[in-house]
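Obj: model holo form, ligand = NAI.
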Amino acid sequence: MNLAVFSAKSYDKTSLTAVVPEQISLHFFESRLTIDTVKLAAGFDAICVFVNDELNREVLTQLKSLGVKYIVLRCAGFNNLDLTACKELGIRCARVPSYSPEAVAEHTVALMMTLNRRIHKAYNRTKEGNFSLSGLMGFNIYGKTVGIIGTGNIGLATARIMKGFGAHVIAYDPFENSKMAESIGFEYTELNTLLTTSDIVSLHCPLTKESHHLLNDASIATMKTGVMIINTSRGGLVDTQSLITNLKSGQIGNLALDVYEQESELFFEDHSSSIIQDDVLQRLLSFPNVIITGHQGFFTAEALEQIAVTTINNLNLFAEEKANPNSLF
Ligand code: NAI
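Output (holo structure tokens):
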């Protein structure tokens, strides 16, 4: 079995090479998979892709004609994959649904606390001998209402941590998990109630047609003035232009993003010596109460190891024609 790994970074090489069995030969491509790079997949039985690789109908059709039989995603979200086209073309695909929900949940809380206690500003100040506290005042998380949208693996892990802070945790999910709500100690509410009553709103649902721009001018207007919003899920869940408008008016008090609607051309690469053309992103970065990280929520040693193990296992199960709960098709 020949596996072509797209968007490969040094850490992908290390983690996948450590677990790959002899019968699978790996080839790493640094390029992102797009219609322009799809020809690199010629001669491979399977490809391994990540969050910003493009798996639309056109690319999938090319993959099929090049002989690719399997696609293994080394991530949980699969909004970049046209599943209907995959089924029609008969290309089997699988993902890694839950490699380390704590990795993303802990990053969510890191963003929350950095923003709240202005650690990003304090770090720079004290480096320069400035020990003034002016502008660094935060608020206690204890007793605040934290709204979690999406109570899958990551949402539940985040709820668990926030309960440890002594926060009042509420959640919205069209598929409620009442057993976990009771054991962790949070309550389900309607989405509207969550938006109007939360001091902090954290997004943990997948990007779908229904959840696209879930946070927009209309929904943000119903939120508490000065609300903190954290998005470690997918950029398309929020209307970025609305975020800017509402940051300018003060309706949003704090914002942290680990994901961005237009991230595919920028994230995971070093652009520090070039002129970034994305004015929306640059405007967001200019706010003192905004923190952006480059889709690093998943990035822990434990998560990378688990991703590699599951990805290779997904491929083995396809090759052996065995049932696999991680299979999307
Ligand atoms: P999951 O599949 O375990 O849970 C998702 C939950 O969202 C489910 O309970 C589902 O019922 C719910 N949901 C679906 N549509 C919804 C809607 N419109 N409103 C509210 N809830 C809705 O997924 P998991 O593992 O918790 O991951 C969540 C998301 O986190 C992924 O879809 C992915 O986009 C993102 N992610 C981000 C990473 C990062 O590095 N920043 C890494 C891994 C995942």
